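Researcher: Go.
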Amino acid sequence: PGQRATGEEYHLSVDARRGYVYLSDALRGTVHILRDATLPPPPSPTPTDTPTPWPTLTPQLEPGPTATVAQEPTCAQLPGPPFEAYWSRDRTLRLGLGCATQERQSTFMAEQSFERGHMIWREPDRIVFVLYNDGVWRSFADRWREDMPEYGCEGTPPGSMLQPKRGFGLVWCVEEGVKEGLGWALDEEQGYTNEWQVFERGEMIVSGAGHVVYALFADDTFLEYPVR
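Model: Structure:
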């Protein structure tokens, strides 16, 4: 039943039916009986997780902002002449200024022209308005008094130009950016009796020197219209 192999020192015999191997050692006079070891079954394969694909997201479009249409003001009091003609024809003017908050007034004013704008002084509230040619305006309290120097600072105007004095001159000298923004005066200040009216978000003033109507808005910008 077995197979035998011989060598000079060892003899090998195999019993395939029973699974034995006989190994004789001629030098030592011993026989070794070998048998196939029963091997444990191979381990079961480790399960591999199959990744679940991410769901495809459908983008959700956010609704855009709804355009707001500015509403025309409903006013209990309308502007007086000459402002009513401009206000009623110009929607930008109506929406920007809103409604008149007091009656139209007529009072003494002074005005002076500069290289890059104008200054207007109003007597009742002693306010100095500075209007720059780029469409921006500012206002300052008139702090000049009769016992103060006529000129608020030293200056040498070029050529035929002038340095403003008194109330205009003090604002021009001490308020930041006014001198640089306006430049030198082109002529002496002039006095007029002009109309003005206050609105919810600004006011309107008639300019005697420039023959224009100024609309001064609360955001520090202004528009000008020719006097009709």
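Model: Residues 130 and 138 are 5 Å apart (CA to CA).
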